[in-house]
Design a protein that fits this description.
Elements: H1 3-24, H2 30-39, H3 41-44, H4 49-65
Helix pairs in contact: 1-2, 1-4, 2-4
Length: 72
């Protein structure tokens, strides 16, 4: 992967992580968070809606299982 593509992929992951954090903090609903990511050009270049939903579900489940003390 080229440097620009690597940067863009990392940026997409950061955007998803930041949005998940907002969902966990009740600043966004799950659906609004997914929509926000889905509407982002960088994120949608690498992830489908189904993949975004899967990532959100997995990360939020991890938070619930860890009593909201993990990295988010």
């Amino acid at each position: 992967m080229g440097k620009v593509k690597e940067w863009a992929y990392d940026e997409a992951e950061n955007i998803i992580d930041q949005t998940i954090e907002k969902v966990i903090k009740d600043e966004l609903t799950f659906n609004k968070g997914v929509k926000q990511c889905q509407d982002n050009n960088i994120v949608k270049a690498f992830f489908t809606k189904d993949e975004i939903e899967m990532i959100f579900s997995h990360e939020i489940k991890k938070e619930l299982n860890n009593g909201f003390v993990s990295e988010h």
